[in-house]
Amino acid sequence: MSALLDTNVLIRFLTLDKNKKYKKLYLFFEALERGEIRVELKLIVLFQTIFVLKSFYKVPKEEIADALTDLLRFKGIAIRKKRAVLRMLELWREKNIEIVDCYLIASLEKDPGLLLYSYDRDFDKFKINRREP
How far apart are alpha carbons 76 and 31 in whole angstroms? Predict the structure, then answer.
């Protein structure tokens, strides 16, 4: 059986929710870490999690990047383009760049043949192909 992970589950885990309703949550994530349970994490859910943690919970981006990087190393969590996502989190943690731009940079670094159409000249600081339309 295939399974997906929803934003609210990630938020509850990453904010260390101690509500009795969620006491099984930590056992669930321990099983994910060991690979006993397998789920796919969709990129849209990852981006929504980042947005909620940053805007609503006011978690510093360095803490978000570190926590999600650790989480993506769990044996039971699969995500497409995992290397690009990990690079995105690294860039976001280290640079003053929006998360979506970090994802674009990571994707372009992985595939040097790709071209980015953008007016944002900040992309020129990276070894990627950018052109204005």
Answer: 8
